[in-house]
Every structure is written in structure tokens, then in C-alpha cells.
């Protein structure tokens, strides 16, 4: 198994609005994937399609080698937005429910985690702190021993300490079990440490996806005397551009070294890289002939 | 045993930071031959980073011959950097001091000195790669 998630021209329409359109993705197994984009970009839609809670309007999505939502439900764990739990049920009830519903349930993982977190088995979930509820939801997700764990904005509602603890435990689970993870966030900083693969989703479209290391190694900010971006070598793809009357500053993607001595070349942080792609859709798209997805790997 | 920490504003990738911290610990004698590095699980549980990041750092250290991984036991220090480089520090520092005096006499202020040093350092590093 080398592909955990594969989408071909995937789209989902609600009424007349496309929540996700023309999404083509190929995510290798064993990665921790960060799905980032502003609120309303279509992140949840993509994740719901991946776990089979939605059916595509167009195209196809394959998860762990099979069409999403069929027989692989036992192999996919899903922690929905805001890490929901059942308020009236106790911690122990949650574990019993998990054991009943999941054939691959690993009781030892569950009890060890609850013990280490110091959760009281008799406590109702509604009386736990936000961080503890998130950890309980994560425990349920991990203990079913999935091959793929999908988490929708798992840390958005958590304070910085709870956020760090959640990601620590998630990474520990990745190190222990052979687990692929897809997690969404509207903050790059949330995913920067933990993820090694990035998907940027803006306005229902995938703007870029790939190994974070590769993305960082192939994107540059270049600035120099003002010039038309059309005069750049064809191997340099302009992601964003801003011009003053004298100066041009561009974010470009290229596999080749930048030889033109007129440019001052610098590397981008992951956040700047994502912002460059996010800014791209809001700007009037003059060079529409450039395929938006050309940067996908 | 050492503990890693990450500086997110340094611009240095997390895996490079781990490699550098091990090298530094070896230089300063905080890690000695036979010491065990923290396991991948320990590092990710502490830093909340991707396990592949740690694996990559350890592989690079292994490639450099500084550590060696024993299946199922851990990653152990096999070489130290302490004595060889420490001895060279003194003379190098003297050279640098002399150069700094020269630069100040030529009228460079701190910022210019730093810019010149970094630019030269980066060019040299790039030439090494090329």
C-alpha cells in the first residue's frame, strides 16, 4: 500500500454552490498531512468525502486503495470538528462504545492512554475540559487502530498548552502505530511541526499539495528592479507578484537555480508560502491560461 | 540523555536543528561515546514533531558516523567531536579577532561586519555545495 488518499477530479456541490471542485490529489501512506485553508474553503467537505460521510458529485476518491465509504470503514478513524464527545456519557461509557463499534479495538491502548491522561472513568464527558474532551476523542480514534486517522480542526478550539499536548500524543501514536494522518487547520502554525505533507485548499480548490520539504526547497521570494513577470524563464512559475513603480517582488516555484543576478533571492517560511497561494485566488486572475493545479505533485 | 528543543523562528528546519543539537552536545562533551539518544517516540512526544523528522536527523547523524542505531535497542553515540575541534577554537578565535580589528579600522560598523561575514559565509557554503 503506497497511496493512502487519491482523488481524481473530485467535486461536491451543495445546491448551486461547489464546496469542492476539481480536486486531484495523491497522498502517499505514512504521512502526516496538513490540510490548510481559510474557513469555508472546503476542508471539512474534503474530509467528509474521504471518510465516506458524503458522496462525490463528480470525480472519485479512493482511500487505502478502495472507493471511500465502502468496506474500509474499520481502517479509517475520524475525529470530527471540535472533537465531539457525548456529554451525558462517562469516559468509561465512551470506551465501551468504542469497543462495541470497532472490531479492531485495542483495549490496552485505550486504558493506558486514559490512565496516563489522568481521566476519571466515571466522569461525564460534558464535565471534562476542552483539552480532556479532545484527548478522549483522540483516544477513541487511536484505539480502533486505524490505518488512516482523519481529524477535522482538532486543535482549533484548544488553548496553546492543550494544543501542544494533543499534538504530542498524536505524534506519539504515529511513531508507535503504522498510521497515516490527515488533519485540517486554518492555521499553518498548528501543522508546521507535525506534518510532512501539505494540502492548501482555497475557495473550494486545491492550490498546491506536496511534501513540505519539497515545497520549501522549490519556492523562493525574489525581488529586484521592476520587470514584467512574463519575461521570466519558463521554468519559473509565478505564485504571487507585487510591483511598485521601481521594484518587483515575486514568489515563484522552480526546480532550477535562479541565475539572474538582478534578483535578491530568499527562502520562504511555510506560512509565507501558504499565504502566497491564498492571495492568488482573491487577486483578479489575468493569466488564467496557467493551469492552477500545475504545481501539484 | 539530552533533550531537544526547537526554535521556530530560526529559519533552520527542525531536522537540522536536531542534528545541530546533537553535534553541539558532542562538541561540548554533554554526549559521550556509548550514550543513548532519546528514542523517536520520546522526541515526538516531547516536541510534537513528525516522527520522520527525527528519523531523518538520526539517519544523517548515522551517515556522518557519529551515532549508530541498534535495532530495537536505540541509537547510540559512536564518536565524539569534543577534543578535535575544541583545540582548534583558540587559534581560530584569535584569527577572527585580528580580522575584526582590521574591519573596524577600515571603518565598518557592527552591522556592516555582520552583513559581510554572513554574505561571505553563505557564498562559501554555496560554493561548497556546488
What do these coordinates show?
With 297 residues, chain A is α/β, with parallel strands linked by helices. Chain A folds into two domains: 201 residues, P-loop containing nucleotide triphosphate hydrolases (Rossmann fold); 80 residues, no CATH class. Helices cover 29% and strands 30% of the residues of chain A. In chain A, α3 packs antiparallel against α4 and α4 runs parallel beside α5. Chain A is elongated and about 70 Å long. Chain A starts with a strand and ends in a 15-residue tail after the last helix. The relative contact order of chain A is 0.14. The C terminus of chain A is likely disordered. By secondary structure, chain B is mainly α. Chain B folds into two domains: 64 residues, Winged helix-like DNA-binding domain superfamily/Winged helix DNA-binding domain (Arc Repressor Mutant, subunit A, Orthogonal Bundle); 42 residues, no CATH class. In chain B, 61% of the residues lie in helices and 6% in strands. Chain B contains five helices and two strands; from the N terminus they run αααββαα. In chain B, strands 1-2 form a two-stranded antiparallel ribbon. In chain B, a hairpin with a 3-residue loop joins β1 and β2. Chain B is elongated, with a radius of gyration of 18 Å.
- Topology order of chain A in helix (H) and strand (E) letters: EEEHEEEHHHEHEHEEHEEEEH
Total individual domains of chain B: 2
Give the number of helices of chain B.
5
From the alpha carbons, calculate the radius of gyration of chain A and give it in angstroms: 21 Å
Tell me the span between the first and last alpha carbons of chain A: 19 Å
What is the total domain count of chain A? 2
Keywords (chain B): DNA-binding, Transcription, Transcription regulation
InterPro entries (chain B): Tscrpt_reg_HTH_GntR (IPR000524), WH-like_DNA-bd_sf (IPR036388), WH_DNA-bd_sf (IPR036390)
Organism (chain B): Kribbella voronezhensis
GO molecular function (chain B): DNA binding; DNA-binding transcription factor activity
Amino acid at each position: 500500500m503506497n497511496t493512502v488518499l487519491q482523488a481524481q477530479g473530485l467535486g461536491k456541490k451543495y445546491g448551486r454552490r461547489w464546496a469542492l471542485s476539481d480536486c486531484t490529489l495523491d497522498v502517499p501512506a505514512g504521512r502526516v498531512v496538513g490540510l490548510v485553508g481559510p474557513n469555508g474553503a472546503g476542508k471539512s467537505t474534503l474530509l467528509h468525502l474521504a471518510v465516506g460521510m458524503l458522496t462525490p458529485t463528480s470525480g472519485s476518491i479512493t482511500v487505502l486503495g478502495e472507493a471511500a465509504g465502502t468496506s474500509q470503514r474499520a481502517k479509517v478513524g475520524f475525529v470530527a470538528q471540535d472533537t465531539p464527545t457525548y456529554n451525558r456519557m462517562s469516559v468509561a461509557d465512551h470506551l465501551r462504545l468504542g469497543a462495541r463499534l470497532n472490531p479492531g479495538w485495542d483495549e490496552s491502548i485505550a486504558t493506558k492512554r486514559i490512565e496516563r491522561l489522568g481521566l476519571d472513568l466515571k466522569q461525564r464527558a460534558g464535565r471534562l475540559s476542552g483539552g480532556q474532551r479532545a484527548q478522549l476523542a483522540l483516544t477513541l480514534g487511536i484505539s480502533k487502530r486505524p490505518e488512516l486517522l482523519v481529524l477535522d480542526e482538532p486543535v482549533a478550539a484548544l488553548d496553546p498548552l492543550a494544543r501542544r499536548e494533543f499534538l504530542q500524543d498524536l505524534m506519539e501514536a504515529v511513531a508507535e502505530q503504522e498510521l497515516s494522518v490527515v488533519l485540517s487547520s486554518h492555521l499553518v502554525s498548528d501543522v508546521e511541526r507535525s506534518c510532512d505533507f501539505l494540502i492548501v485548499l482555497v475557495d473550494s480548490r486545491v492550490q498546491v499539495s506536496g511534501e513540505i520539504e519539497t515545497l520549501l526547497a522549490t519556492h523562493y521570494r525574489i525581488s529586484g528592479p521592476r520587470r514584467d513577470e512574463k519575461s521570466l524563464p519558463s521554468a519559473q512559475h509565478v505564485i504571487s507578484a507585487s510591483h511598485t513603480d521601481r521594484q518587483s517582488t515575486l514568489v515563484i516555484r522552480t526546480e532550477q537555480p535562479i541565475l539572474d543576478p538582478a534578483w535578491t533571492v530568499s527562502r520562504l517560511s511555510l506560512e509565507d508560502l501558504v499565504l502566497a497561494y491564498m492571495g492568488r485566488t482573491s487577486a483578479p486572475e489575468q493569466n488564467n491560461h496557467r493551469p492552477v493545479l500545475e504545481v501539484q505533485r | 540523555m539530552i533533550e531537544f528543543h526547537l526554535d521556530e523562528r530560526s529559519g533552520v528546519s527542525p531536522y537540522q536543528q536536531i542534528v545541530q543539537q546533537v553535534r553541539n552536545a558532542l562538541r561540548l562533551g554533554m554526549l559521550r561515546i556509548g550514550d543513548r539518544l532519546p528514542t523517536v517516540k520520546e522526541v515526538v512526544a516531547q516536541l510534537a514533531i513528525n516522527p520522520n523528522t527525527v528519523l531523518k536527523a538520526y539517519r544523517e547523524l548515522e551517515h556522518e558516523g557519529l551515532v549508530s542505531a541498534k535495532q530495537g535497542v536505540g541509537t547510540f553515540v559512536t564518536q565524539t567531536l569534543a577534543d578535535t575541534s575544541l583545540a582548534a577554537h583558540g587559534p581560530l578565535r584569535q584569527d577572527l579577532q585580528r580580522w575584526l580589528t582590521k574591519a573596524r579600522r577600515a571603518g565598518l560598523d557592527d552591522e556592516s561586519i555582520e552583513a559581510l561575514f554572513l554574505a561571505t559565509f553563505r557564498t562559501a557554503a554555496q560554493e561548497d555545495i556546488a
